[in-house]
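Section 5.1 Outputs to date
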Amino acid sequence: MQSTRRDLPQLFSDARRWFDEGLLAALEAAGATPVSPTQVQLFAVLDGDGTTVSELARRMGVTRQTAHQAVHGLVAAGLLEQAPDPASARRRLIRRTGEGERVHHQARTILDRLEEQLAERISREAVDALRAALEAEWGRPPSPSP
């Protein structure tokens, strides 16, 4: 008989989707510029002072091309801009525009509300325990055994 127990990566993916869908629906209801889940993820890993496309791709776990496409969509929407990197003449930093900062702040407020809604559904203790487990130092992934 097959087990119906789902593994942790599947559960993490479902939890991520729950937050992403709630965030995107709330942003749409507020009249914000429509963005994709990939663009939401890009915003989440972007440093305040700017980040290179290569670093964004690494943090997101996607190709540079995928990160570049997400950046270009957000630049076209007026939420991001490209600026010279003072540390390297060859690189450009991606950073939020004033409107991008406003939307980022709005998204943070929505995510806080979603977390509170989750706490109402599964309990504050469960959310706090989940947060503590995810914030704990897990170390590097184990190496395969010979």
